[in-house]
Amino acid sequence: MRPPASPRRPAPGVPRRPPRLLIVEDERRLAVSLARGLTAEGYAVDVVHDGREGLRRAAEGAYDLVLLDIMLPGLNGYRVCAALRAAGHGVPILMLTAKDGEYDEAEGLDTGADDYLTKPFSYVVLVARVKALLRRGEASGVRAVHVLGGLRVDTAARRVLLDGTEAALTAKEFAVLEELVLRAGQVVSKAEILEQVWDFAYEGDPNIVEVYVSALRRKLRPGLIRTVRGAGYRLEAGE
């Protein structure tokens, strides 16, 4: 199922290559079903059924997004995700799992995953999440750098520096921070962050926003993002 790689930028007038997705899923029927559906959506899709092989393929750097099951033979999804992040790979990762519960979700996010879907899930929701992650991962054509005190956020290069030190953020963490940066000094509600970052199709717990805000506080500075009780969050422009 491996499509030909297209590492070069297409010439003007030549269509861009379709986004390349890697599905790492040991439930073969589900993997095949997802691959067929996403191929019909216009994506180039590869499928592997083992964690070690998934890590090897994802580490090649040829993919725009990885759909990663947690319960895998060889190497579980948490370890695959953690290994990719430790090696500096920033590819967006959407975790798929039959497990449920706040602890499992937090563990997945802590290892560097960008989003999380619990089986059984709606295919429509899956496609919406994939599109959202790919859209967030695309660099903007207009360079925009926001400097707020010691915080420097480059939305085109998707880099964040705090007091000159770069912070390693996942795509979803960056997206949440970006929403707060664009409205620095203003209160941004959970609903607004969900709408902009997770899209209208998100049907999970809105408290997922708290998980990402907590992660940003750990990686940046605790007092940088203030909680405004009953209203939302405010990025302190003067911090």
How many runs of DSSP E, i.e. beta strands?
Answer: 12
Count of separate DSSP helical elements = 8
User: Largest sheet, if any?
Assistant: 5 strands, parallel
Approximately what portion of the residues adopt beta-strand conformation?
15-25%
Q: Radius of gyration, Cα only, in angstroms? A: 18 Å
Q: Major sheet: order of its strands?
A: 2-1-3-4-5
Please tell me the overall pLDDT.
Answer: 81
Shape: globular
- How far apart, in Å, are the first and last alpha carbons? 50 Å
Q: Provide the structure class.
A: alpha/beta
The H/E string reads: EHEHEHEHEHEEEEHEHHEE
- Contiguous low-pLDDT stretches (5 residues minimum) are 1-15, 139-143
Helical fraction equals 25-40%
Label this structure with key terms:
single chain; 239 residues; alpha/beta; five-stranded parallel β-sheet; four-stranded antiparallel β-sheet; 12 strands; 37% helix; globular; disordered N terminus
What does this protein structure show overall?
The protein has 239 residues and is of the alpha/beta class. It has helices spanning 28-40, 51-58, 77-86, 102-110, 123-137, 171-182, 190-198, 208-219, and strands at 20-24, 44-48, 65-69, 93-97, 115-118, 145-148, 151-154, 159-162, 165-167, 187-188, 225-228, 232-235. The chain has a 5-stranded parallel beta sheet with strand order 2-1-3-4-5, with helices on both faces. It has a 4-stranded antiparallel beta sheet with strand order 6-7-8-9, with helices on one face. It has a 3-stranded antiparallel beta sheet with strand order 10-12-11. α4 (102-110) links the parallel β4 (93-97) and β5 (115-118). The radius of gyration is 18 Å and the shape is globular. The model is unreliable at 1-15 and 139-143 (pLDDT under 50).
